Amino acid sequence: MATPTRPGAELTPGELAARSGVAVSALHFYEREGLIQSRRTDGNQRRYPRETLRRLAFVRVSQRVGIPLAEIRAALETLPRGKTPNRAEWAALSERWRTDLDRRISQLVRLRDDLAFCIGCGCLSLDTCALANPGDALGALGPGPRILDADPGSAPEPPGARTGKDAVRPHPRPG
Ligand code: FES
């Protein structure tokens, strides 16, 4: 028996999951988060427009490069409801996000370099470890991980912090 045609060749959750490689539970999550939309049939079953495949690809690719869901949602909200980014829109969005990616890559490189001083040390000294928070002095600058969140070159300096090459020095080991 032939499969009944659906308006605009809509996809069931199972079909969309099979075509996109995204689990049905994840589809429901993305829908709750406002990233994709469905309509309900008379029997209260979800039906997704075929364009949702491309929209899901956009979401997955964006997530893969570390873009938070809130930003992905905000980007999609700049498009007409239900519209999927076309080639030009995706190019514009990805260009905008490249700046953020560059910033995060710089942060990770800085953390990796700081961590190099800690490997094999283990002191976690509040006085000398670059990855520790000396005396919780950074707490006065606001909530959250102040060093980890800071832009490269603009990391907040706690009162009395050392600068230059002395700023990062493994804790001397006894003996
Ligand atoms: S653990 Fe970071 S300098 Fe010792």
Automatic annotation (TrEMBL):
GO terms for molecular function: 2 iron, 2 sulfur cluster binding; DNA binding; DNA-binding transcription factor activity; metal ion binding. Pfam families: MerR (PF00376), MerR-DNA-bind (PF09278). Keywords: 2Fe-2S, DNA-binding, Iron, Iron-sulfur, Metal-binding, Transcription, Transcription regulation. InterPro entries: DNA-bd_dom_put_sf, MerR-type_HTH_dom, MerR_fam, Redox-sen_tscrpt-act_SoxR, Tscrpt_reg_MerR_DNA-bd. It comes from the Bacteria. Residues 141-175 are annotated as: Disordered. SUPFAM superfamilies: Putative DNA-binding domain (SSF46955). GO terms for biological process: response to oxidative stress. Residues 10-78 form the HTH merR-type domain. This is Redox-sensitive transcriptional activator SoxR.
